[in-house]
Amino acid sequence: MYFYHPKYKEMEQLLFFNEDNSMMLEILKSSFGVKAMVYVYPQIRDDGLVSWRMLRNLTNFPKELLEVSPSPFYFSPSFKYYIDFNPLTNEFYIVHTVT
Predict the structure, then answer these.
(1) What is the pTM of this model?
(2) Dihedrals φ, ψ of 94, to 5°?
């Protein structure tokens, strides 16, 4: 499986894949903050490249968890669920990634 993905200047870029390589988590860290997106690939193209599609932009990504570890332990191995943080209630909760 091969794919091309942009490399952004002046940003730390982390890419992680779920247990069956059907989903990718991208984390971008810069002086402006942290951005995280989850991608799925619907198919492998005729030329053999993977075509990724953004599934979800994690707008309230739990930045506090990145301080613990850069690995995505806050996602289930399948990436179907992840831990999110509600700053209003100061509580963590589990979110379904697809919905």
Answers:
(1) 0.79
(2) -95, 135
